[in-house]
Write a structure and sequence with these properties.
By secondary structure, the chain is an alpha/beta fold. It is 35% helix and 25% strand. The structure holds adenosine-5'-triphosphate.
Length: 300
């Protein structure tokens, strides 16, 4: 049985410039190359899930412009049901300006149409949520929309996974609906408001009503915790790194897919570490997402 997952989130066109070094303020540099690639955490995760073989639908917004049409086509080419992605006249498609240089980067995201994804959009696409087993969200669309979608999903008894990126203070009514939250270490520190130490920070989030917290730890893998249970770590994989952009997206893809397949949490995290390890060995967030076969045959 294929897991049926609805991703509610952002779609961006990423303009990626490769430069010999990062410019200083006011400087003009000659770059090496420029590429336009589909991105946005929502779209990355939707494409990644479809590549693993899940049944995926996406809910979001693009502008009524050239980038918007390209992003919709790229979802369709990636076997994602895009009927829940609406055009908006009042804003342009979300875009990210990314400069890569000497292994470092500068990124500016302009949310554009993503900021116009409203609770009313969730209401009109409720059928997609009804059909799904899992609702997977991030924080690149308005918090009010994420909160509303999480409440609707819970009322419909769906599993809610929240990748809290970019991190921001979250309302209690959202936290109460989250089954699995997947911060990285930076996001964890922001969400845990003043706590220090991995376990203490995770406990602080569990106390706010989230059922499971899974913290990604880069090459170290991930740690997870349920309320009242001990913290467990699932190690990552030693792989040659090509591009870690989208490692977090790949992890969420693997986790949601494995949970949707009915795997126990430690196995699901182990699978997610593998999906992410394959993805860091390749260039690009969406391009780097592996197929199920590639994950199954993965070895360090
Ligand atoms: P990003 O923002 O780059 O998408 P992130 O900061 O959200 O990533 P990380 O904790 O860095 O998330 O990585 C997510 C997962 O990717 C890790 O839990 C691990 O499974 C995998 N991963 C990340 N970096 C590496 C690495 N260097 N080698 C192997 N696996 C990695």
């Amino acid at each position: 049985m294929k897991p049926n997952i609805v991703v509610i989130g952002s779609l961006n066109m990423d303009m990626v410039v490769q430069a010999p070094r990062l410019p200083v303020m006011g400087e003009t540099l000659l770059g090496k190359s420029m590429q336009f690639v589909p991105g946005g955490k929502g779209a990355n995760q939707a494409i990644g899930l479809a590549r693993l073989g899940a049944e995926v639908a996406m809910i979001g917004r693009v502008g009524k412009d050239h980038f918007g049409s390209e992003l919709l086509s790229s979802l369709q080419a990636g076997w994602v049901n895009s009927t829940g992605v609406k055009n908006t006249e009042s804003a342009e498609t979300g875009a990210a300006s990314i400069v890569l240089a000497e292994g470092d980067n500068i990124i500016i995201v302009v949310p554009g149409a993503n900021a116009r994804c409203t609770p009313a959009d969730i209401e009109t696409q409720i059928e997609l949520i009804e059909r799904a087993d899992i609702v997977l969200m991030q924080l690149e669309i308005p918090l009010a929309t994420v909160t509303y979608a999480a409440k609707v999903a819970k009322q419909l008894q769906k599993t809610v996974i929240l990748n809290p990126a970019p991190a921001q203070k979250l309302p209690p009514e959202l936290l109460a609906c989250v089954d699995y939250m997947t911060p990285n270490e930076t996001e964890l520190a922001i969400l845990a408001e003043g706590q220090t130490g991995l376990e203490e920070c995770m406990d602080a989030i569990l106390t706010q009503g989230v059922r499971h917290v899974i913290t990604t730890l880069g090459a170290q893998g991930a740690a997870y915790k349920e309320k009242g249970k001990t913290l467990l770590r699932i190690p990552g994989h030693q792989v040659p790194v090509v591009d870690t952009t989208g490692a977090g997206d790949a992890f969420n893809v693997g986790l949601a897919y494995a949970i949707g397949c009915g795997h126990a949490l430690p196995d699901a995290i182990s699978f997610a570490n593998k999906v992410a390890a394959v993805s860091v060995g390749r260039f690009g967030a969406q391009q780097g997402m592996p197929t199920l076969e590639e994950v199954v045959h993965f070895s360090e």
